[in-house]
Write a structure and sequence with these properties.
heterodimer; A: 307 residues; alpha+beta; eight-stranded mixed beta sheet; 8 strands; B: 697 residues; seven-stranded mixed beta sheet; flat
Chain lengths: 307, 697
């Protein structure tokens, strides 16, 4: 297969969307919250639970405060994009489908060395694990490929297949760019050609300073505790909504609060105020929230309950 | 006789599990077949990233018939029990035999089982093997409930006779067995039919798959060496990496790339660790400059552009990875230049050594204290030794070691030098971890010796204090390695040290972590056991070691080793035989008498009860030699001591020639036994010779 090389970051994103759309996925939009990875999107975390079949793909902006390098490192960013695919049950030809997506963005299998290298995926905060690989293209990790075995402490039946593409790194590679900030964001022939740095260099600097040195840790700590409290509180509400008379479990609002708690924890971590021993305790507090959300989700229609 | 070929094709199997899995496939199939009476089968297993293959030859068409006798109920048992037994063996009452079992009569059934068709057995065996495969970690996929290491895609299973091959049919969770296999994922993905093993190997090779892991490793090593040689560089050998890389490719293609000049200031160890850990590259070193200038990567395809794109990509990734390493290196250096190593000392409080033994800061405090004691005994520079003990774990708080834990110590040395410490002190950071394996060199610089011993002894005593001892199968804290390290450092450096005293003195510093009462003696026993194994590997007899460990100060390993050498020397000489004959005779008579009389004959003999000259001569000889031996032992001249002992040979022989120990006169008898007791006492100054086996006498 010979595919024309894409010219910009956004063209790669669009091609991936088109490819997975053509292969049967619902193309969702990014979740409107700060998350550490595309997996946190409820379309993955929650939808991988229960028996209902599911197929979705989406771009997810992701934040890892401690990875900030003031925009100086060629490919480390505290804010970056992931492209996420989730298919439940995982199709038999999932690997071939995935390789097809690489061809679609211009990586021909005849000159590139694509390798599936063991990687057991685990997310302590999501109480989730799965087996799969890091996919390497010419020695570079371009995707994470996982068969979910457990999420929020629940066994995944059927099993979801999950793909995560690190978009900047992948795109830099496809476009032959050495520094992320130099990467064309839109087409270089556009009326206003923009580079990645035009869009994000300044914000990387601002956030790095805030994440590492300026964020008020007392406020962050309080925010963490408030989110935790509210998450637990709304899950203790009775299923029956007194106003509508319907069974409404508030899983997604609760899960949003769990996502918030997780992000506040990441910020505290980047500020360096969490000791090694405390770290474990915070992680288990977030996991505890995820687990409660997962327990609640499987009681809902989207979670496979029949009535 | 027919052959069997099985291939289990799957999505990529983790490299570290492939060889194990191929062996398990073989083992399980052989054991299942053996249960069915099919044994003595030649079997070979192979693995690639996507397949486990098993080839067996010399199978029968049919398993041998089995006759079996089964015991039934007593003949007076209730009818129900008898009927049940008849049903279970599918026979009539008149086909049963009655036999005595113990003191009751019971029914017995003889069952003749015709041997089963081999292909049926194989189908069952394979299904069972697949369903119960002992993967270290396995998974489900799709909607299936089968578990495999990664999704299982195909089962090739054929029974091969001279002129035909037969599909052995089985079906597991929707996967049907087949006569086909598939080639390389990218270069020849099509399925092809397989006739026999030769056909299979040939077709795989044509489809860019080399079946044998060893052959792939050989190709990689050979090509890598050639590439290195062509560029005048040395390949840094790494067996673990070679093993792993051979498990990542079905068709190895070796490519050589360059390390960018921007990183020439980074320590070679950092380059090597980063390239290995993150990218599975082999490092190529310039032997003149010691710098790593190029790398070798192993691709899985023969690319249309001869690997140009692959190499470019790999170099780009390397650039980014090394930029990261450089970032850590520069951050660490910046911190040191500002605050010295003190910047990290405080942080060691946050680095756990072991949850019951405190932080690395606690560990450093203990190691420092112990180092001071050892430094005094080893007569090395106490101040330098304590300084190095204080900084030896500093790098555990550095960014570089956080990222590459395997660089602990190595980085410590670089950082200590940057912080202005002397080369002698700095190198302790690295050397105090040595030796890391049985063939790794031990430290020789005296302060490195002191800190290394202190670190290891503290670790050993610490884990015994909290009662976390290694078991026969598990040693998570590498305590065996630590003990062996202590032994080798002491012996190879001729260190004068009483371990018992040192451990006793150190025990109080561990009291706030644990208080296991026998910690010191248990650690000593552990070290002694390791010591014996260490000496056994050096071909020194167990009994010689036991004999020398039975006397004197056993905490001083150097001294014990000297005794052992002297005794081992003696035993390899011709005189030993004659001397031991006499010694054993004396010892046997003495032991027997002591057992019979219930006393110990260790009072010493009295010359006034002696009746004949040889008795008196032995007495005088013992008196003389005892002080010679005593003095020699005091001077640690064990060779001399042993020679003095063997000088007793003639008087002992003369004694036994003329004297009957068991005299009728009880006083004379006891006096003679006490004389024999003196032989034992003199010998015991050197070693407990009664423990020596295998000498005639």
């Amino acid at each position: 297969m010979n595919v024309a090389k894409p010219k910009s970051f956004q063209e790669i994103v669009l091609r991936l969307q088109n490819y997975w759309s053509d292969n049967g996925c619902a193309i969702l939009q990014p979740y409107d919250m700060e998350v550490g990875a595309g997996t946190f999107h409820p379309a993955t975390t929650l939808r991988s639970l229960g028996e209902n079949h599911w197929a979705a793909a989406y771009v997810q902006p992701s934040r890892r405060p401690s990875d900030g390098r003031y925009g100086e490192n060629p490919n480390r960013l505290q804010h970056y994009y992931q492209f996420q695919v989730i298919m439940k049950p995982s199709p038999e030809d999932f690997q071939e489908l995935y390789l097809g997506s690489l061809e679609a963005i211009g990586l021909s299998m005849s000159v590139h060395d694509v390798r599936f290298v063991e990687d057991d995926w685990e997310s302590p905060t999501l109480g989730a694990w799965g087996l799969g690989w890091e996919v390497w293209c010419d020695g570079m990790e371009v995707s994470q490929f996982t068969y979910f075995q457990q999420v929020g402490g629940h066994d995944c039946k059927p099993v979801s297949g999950e793909l995560t593409y690190g978009l900047e790194r992948l795109a830099m590679y496809v476009l032959g760019v050495n520094h992320v900030m130099e990467m064309p964001f839109n087409s270089p022939e556009a009326l206003v050609p923009l580079k990645y740095g035009d869009v994000f260099l300044q914000t990387e600097q601002e956030y790095a300073r805030w994440n590492f040195d300026a964020a008020n840790t007392d406020i962050l700590l309080k925010n963490f505790e408030d989110a935790e409290k509210e998450c637990e509180r709304i899950l203790t509400h009775k299923e029956l909504d007194p106003k509508t008379g319907k069974k409404i479990i508030m899983v997604h609002p609760a899960y949003d609060l769990c996502i918030k708690a997780s992000h506040f924890f990441n910020l505290l971590d980047a500020r360096g105020v969490i000791s090694v021993t405390e770290r474990q305790a915070y992680i288990s507090r977030v996991r505890n929230l995820t687990k409660k959300c997962a327990d609640a989700f499987v009681q809902t229609a989207a979670g496979g309950q029949k009535n | 006789m027919p052959d069997l070929l099985i291939e289990l094709l799957s999505e990529e199997i983790p490299a570290r599990m492939q060889e194990f899995a191929a062996n398990e496939l073989k083992k399980n199939m052989l054991s299942f077949l053996a249960d069915q009476g099919v044994s003595e089968i030649a079997a070979t297993a192979y693995s690639t990233p996507r397949r486990l293959t098993l080839f067996m030859s010399g199978l029968p068409e049919k398993a041998p018939d089995i006759s079996e006798e089964r015991k039934g109920p007593r003949i007076d048992a209730p009818q129900q029990a008898v009927d049940g037994f008849l049903r279970s063996v599918d026979l009539n009452l008149d086909q049963l035999e009655v036999k005595r079992d113990g003191n009751v009569d019971k029914y017995f059934a003889s069952i003749e089982k015709p041997g089963r068709i081999c292909t049926k057995i194989i189908a069952e065996a394979l299904e069972k093997t697949i369903r119960t495969f002992p993967w270290p970690k396995s998974m489900r996929w799709g909607a299936s409930s089968l578990k495999w290491v990664r999704p299982l895609q195909g089962i090739l299973c054929i029974f091969i006779r001279d002129d035909e091959h037969q599909l052995i049919e089985l079906q597991i969770d929707g996967i049907h067995s087949d006569v086909r296999s598939a080639g390389h994922r990218f270069m020849a993905p099509d399925y092809f039919k397989v006739k026999d093993f030769e056909d299979y190997k040939r077709k795989l090779r044509d489809a860019y798959v080399i079946l044998d892991h060893k052959e792939r490793a050989e190709i990689i090593l050979n090509d890598a060496n050639n590439l290195a040689f062509a560029h005048g560089l040395d390949l840094i050998h790494d067996d673990a990496l070679l093993e792993e890389v051979s498990g990542l490719v079905e068709w190895p293609v070796t490519l050589l790339g360059e390390v960018d000049n921007a990183f020439s200031d980074l320590p070679a160890e950092v380059l090597q660790a980063s390239m290995k850990e993150h990218q599975k590259f082999f490092s190529l070193k310039n032997s003149k400059t010691g710098k790593i200038e190029r790398f070798i990567t192993v691709a899985n395809i023969e690319a249309a552009d001869n690997g140009e794109t692959i190499l470019k990509g790999n170099q780009k990734v390397l650039y980014a990875r090394l930029s990261d390493a450089k970032f850590f290196w520069e951050n660490d250096i910046r911190l040191i230049q500002k605050d010295g190593l003190d910047a990290w000392l405080g942080k060691l409080d946050d680095v756990t050594f072991h949850n019951k033994l405190g932080s690395q800061a606690d560990k450093v405090t203990r190691v420092s204290t112990l180092t001071k004691i050892l430094a005094k005994q080893l007569l090395c520079d106490i101040e330098d030794a304590v300084t190095s003990a204080n900084i030896c774990k500093c790098d555990l708080a550095s960014e570089m070691v956080y990222e590459f834990p395997e660089l602990q110590g190595v980085m410590g040395r670089y950082y200590a030098l940057r912080a202005g410490y002397s080369e002698d002190v700095a190198k302790v950071c690295e050397e105090h971890y040595a030796p890391k394996g049985p063939n790794d060199p031990v430290p020789t610089a005296s302060i490195s010796v002191a800190v290394s011993l202190a670190d290891k002894l503290d670790t050993l005593l610490g884990f015994w204090t909290i009662d976390e001892k290694p078991t026969s199968s598990k040693d998570p804290f590498a305590l065996r390695r630590a003990a062996l390290g202590v032994i080798r450092i002491i012996l190879e450096n001729d260190v004068e040290l009483d371990l018992v005293e040192v451990l006793n003195a150190h025990f109080e510093h561990l009291s706030k972590f644990g208080n296991h009462p026998h910690a010191v003696s248990d650690v000593m026993n552990f070290i002694r056991d390791r010591f014996k194994i260490y000496l056994r590997d050096k071909n020194i007899r167990y009994d010689v070691v036991d004999a020398c460990l039975a006397v004197g100060k056993v905490g001083n390993l150097k001294l014990v080793k000297k005794r052992i050498n002297a005794l081992a020397n003696l035993l390899s000489s011709d005189e030993a035989e004659d001397f031991f004959q006499g010694f054993k005779r004396a010892n046997n008579i003495l032991a027997k008498a002591e057992q019979k009389d219930g006393v110990e004959y260790s009072f010493g003999a009295d010359i006034k009860y002696m009746e004949v000259d040889p008795e008196k001569e032995l007495f005088n000889a013992l008196k003389e030699q005892h002080s010679v031996v005593e003095q020699a032992v005091f001077e640690e001249a064990f060779q001399k001591a042993i020679l003095a002992v063997t000088d007793l040979r003639q008087p002992i022989d003369d004694f036994f020639e003329c004297v009957q120990v068991n005299s009728e006169n009880d006083i004379v008898r006891r006096n003679r036994l006490n004389l024999l007791g003196q032989i034992r006492a003199t010998c015991n100054l050197v070693a407990d010779l009664s423990k020596i086996e295998g000498q005639s006498g």
